[in-house]
Design a protein that fits this description.
Blueprint: H1 2-16, E1 51-55, E2 60-63, E3 69-71, E4 74-78, E5 88-95, H2 96-99, E6 112-118, E7 121-124, E8 132-134, E9 144-146, E10 155-162, E11 167-176, E12 178-183, H3 194-203, E13 207-208, H4 211-219, E14 228-229, E15 234-239, E16 254-260, E17 269-275, E18 281-283, H5 292-301, E19 305-306, H6 309-319, E20 327-328, E21 333-338, E22 351-357, E23 365-369
Parallel strand pairs: 2-11, 14-17, 20-23
Antiparallel strand pairs: 1-4, 3-9, 5-6, 5-10, 6-7, 8-9, 10-11, 12-17, 13-17, 14-15, 15-16, 18-23, 19-23, 20-21, 21-22
The structure holds 2-acetamido-2-deoxy-beta-D-glucopyranose (2 copies).
One 2-acetamido-2-deoxy-beta-D-glucopyranose binds at residues 291-294, 360-361.
Length: 370
């Protein structure tokens, strides 16, 4: 009996020794020991020290819309257990749009359940129903597989193991590869309250961008001097070249913030986020230019639909779509995508060039989506 406990005791003593502490990985704080005092009154205590580790080798995972992604997570015990314990696994999620949002004093947490598993039984929740499973490729593998990734699946995922005595967890951030674009109403600048902005992005096959997505876009060079809503209800705009009227020349480049604004009353533009689409976006080859009504019909005749703004941006950014012909889009705006800047195709940087919303009788080409 004693010979069996000695290594366990050694592990425990090691942990108590000065210096041993620094070897304890930061993600584990749950050292547990069980007092199995033999009760003979001599103050002898045997420690049954077993630690549960839950780890993710990858703190962030980036994926494409519509694909499957695996969020890695596994657990093990130290020292190893001879008989497996009954464990419960819970994956939960904080959506990207609420990671930075101020937590209301009434709502204790914005974390919601994705899946709970115990043995071979499991249950998934909400929008994850039927789209998630545990990988279980090796013992201890609790990696979460999510199928048919959606735009709004981004955020912080937590993998939690509960074995009755201990409760340990690790987190993994899920990001989608995509593109942020500014969007305003056909009525002009600053006509969206938060909910209208949300709807406008959705109508263009996109979603309101998160702060992280806008920040990444700014790092990649996005400069836009009109403020827009983000998914967490804040209002920002990204400036790479400081100038008057955009926060002034004394302010360093950065993402300028108006903070949280009133979601019903205040009106701004929107920053939308779009990720790769399954189909293709193409410029419809036509002998004559078309007014908006004709453009809409021409795509349908071609077995497609007139492309949405988010689809054109995704095709430009993620598929390299490059076409120096202005074309109608579903919202009544006229744009064209340039990845290789050249003479007579707009400014020297790549981008989606926009003529804004134009009268429907005017004649252009058209971008379709199939
Ligand atoms: C996420 O997007 C899907 C469609 O892709 C939608 O059905 C669902 O309501 C959205 N969920 C949230 C929380 O916005
Ligand atoms: C577009 O042209 C068609 C004729 O080809 C015409 O019937 C229609 O009214 C025009 N639409 C607009 C908005 O000008």
């Amino acid at each position: 009996m004693l010979s069996l406990l000695r290594p366990l005791l050694a592990v425990f003593l090691y942990l108590l020794l000065p210096g041993g502490q620094s070897r304890i990985p930061v993600y584990n704080n749950g050292f547990h020991y069980q007092d199995i005092s033999n009760g003979n009154g001599n103050g002898e205590i045997y420690f049954n020290g077993v630690r549960l580790y839950v780890e993710s080798p990858q703190p962030a995972v980036s994926a494409t819309r519509g694909s499957s992604v695996t969020l890695p997570c596994h657990f093990h015990y130290e020292p190893e257990l001879s008989t497996p314990r009954r464990t419960r696994v819970k994956w939960s999620w904080i959506p990207a749009n609420s990671i930075n949002a101020p937590v209301s004093p009434l709502a204790s947490t914005s974390e919601t359940e994705v899946m709970v598993a115990m043995g071979n039984r499991h249950r998934s929740y909400g929008g994850f129903k039927g789209r998630v499973r545990l990988r279980r490729s090796v013992p201890g593998d609790l990696s979460l597989v999510i199928n048919e990734l959606r735009l709004n699946d981004t955020g912080r995922y937590r993998c939690e193991v509960i074995d009755g005595l201990e409760d340990e967890s690790a987190t993994v951030e899920l990001e989608l590869r995509g593109v942020v674009f500014p969007y305003h109403s056909h009525r002009g600048r600053y006509h969206f309250n938060f909910f209208a902005a949300q709807q406008a992005c959705q109508d263009q096959d996109a979603t309101l961008a998160t702060f992280e997505q806008l920040f990444t876009a700014w790092e990649e060079g996005l400069d836009w001097c009109n403020a827009g809503w983000l998914a967490d209800g804040t209002v920002h705009y990204p400036i790479t070249a400081p100038r008057e009227g955009c926060g002034g020349i004394d302010l360093a480049p950065g993402v300028r913030s108006y903070g949280q604004r009133h979601r019903l009353i205040h009106q701004y533009d929107a920053f939308c986020f779009s990720a790769s689409v399954k189909g293709i976006v193409y410029f419809l080859e036509q002998s004559a230019k078309l007014n908006f009504t004709e453009a809409f019909q021409a795509c349908i005749r071609d077995g497609s639909q007139i492309a949405k703004v988010g689809q054109l941006y995704a095709a430009w950014r993620l598929m390299g779509l490059d076409r120096c012909d202005a074309g109608w889009l579903a919202d009544g705006s006229v744009r064209y995508p340039i990845t290789r800047p050249r003479a007579n195709c707009g400014p020297p940087e790549p981008g989606v060039r926009s003529f804004g919303f134009l009268p429907a009788y005017m004649k252009f080409g058209v971008y379709c989506y199939r």
